[in-house]
Amino acid sequence: MEQSAELLTPRRMTRQITVGGVAVGGGAPVTVQSMTTTKTADVEGTLAQIYALASAGADIVRCTCNEEAAAEGLAQIVPRSPVPIIADIHFHHEMALAALEAGVQGLRLNPGNLRKEAEIKQVAGEARDRGVPIRIGVNAGSLHPDLYKRFGGATPEALVESARMELAYFEEVGFSDVKISVKASSVALMIAAYRLAAETFDHPLHLGVTEAGPPPAGLLKGSAGIGTLLAEGIGDTIRFSLTADPVEEARAGRQLLESLGLRERKGLDLIACPSCGRAQVDVIAVAKAAQEALEDRKLPIQVAVMGCVVNGPGEAREADIGIAAGKAKGHLFIKGKIVRVVPEDQMVEALVTEAEKLVAEGIEARLAAADAGAEAEAEADRLELLDEKGSDPNATAVKIRHIRDRFAHPEAN
Ligand code: SF4
User: Fold this and answer.
1) Which of 315, 318, 385, when mutated, tests ligand 1's pocket best, judged by the most ligand atoms within 8 Å of its CB?
2) What is the tens place of the pLDDT at every residue in 62-82?
3) Which end of the chain is less enclosed by CB atoms within 10 A, N or C?
4) Alpha helices by DSSP H, 131-214
């Protein structure tokens, strides 16, 4: 931790929740979130964006779950995502139930448009049974109309009251695995609402300025709102909402935390896949070996360690360089293109050698120096693995069947 963080107001102590493996609140490092802009039903496109977001500094990624096809997409995305996935839910509680069925690690509910008490409690009960946390995501722009009337507008008190009411429903079913946001597009309103929320709740707070717009204005608004609160010790996880490529959101979030000394500056940027049913190697062990071998070399590049050559090079095509396992070999790739195939026990060594050359000579030069035949060999390995493991190594078909059953027989739920 940089010394500057010690000069800020001490961080407010909150309860801690865990989103997938990522702790939020209770003294955990402040995390960065972002949201995909792809259709969630587009599994490959969404995963590529999730990897790009993770490379840019996102610790947690949110995807919309607005239709049955999106829930089915989530069932396939979650086991292959390098970071925990939160499903964003509006209007339809059955989407929340389907997302839970898909295995998401968190839900975001908007109390302004998901209003039926029985439905809210049903979702909270199911989340409780599955150990999945929920964010109560209040938004000034979609505040419950009754509260709008009662408070004479979207005031800080109205936003906090909306969260309190939702929390009360949750507590009635014994669920308190919750974080809270009270976002607004007005920076002043958002700051006041979060200050009040910090006095009212001991739950972790997710900070954000909504509809901040395109950069640079959006960046300034987000930084003013989120930065002010963080300097006051308020906030446990943050998201910039920009009208831009979400990679910019993740990058901005990360840079803001680094500038306040709340997160350490990253030297080597290494991402690893979560190692799903397709993995051909112990990804954690290889990632650790790669991290150790590369760490001291201070190479300013992104490196990906991927469990299989079937999907790895494609999923991590945003990374500068990476290695994917398969058929007892390591498939070395640069920007998603296979440049060399080596025996598995030499994969880390080959990765380090190539990484150094990449920094010295540049991407174009190293792509031009690719081994002839590497791509064809990797493709053959890929096809063999596809044959061996089939199209559903993560057994998502069962989850998808459950999701379809839910939509086919809503009365049974
Ligand atoms: S094992 Fe392959 S498909 Fe599974 S998460 Fe890793 S790279 Fe993706």
Assistant:
1) 315
2) 999 999 999 999 999 999 999
3) N
4) 145-151, 156-172, 187-200
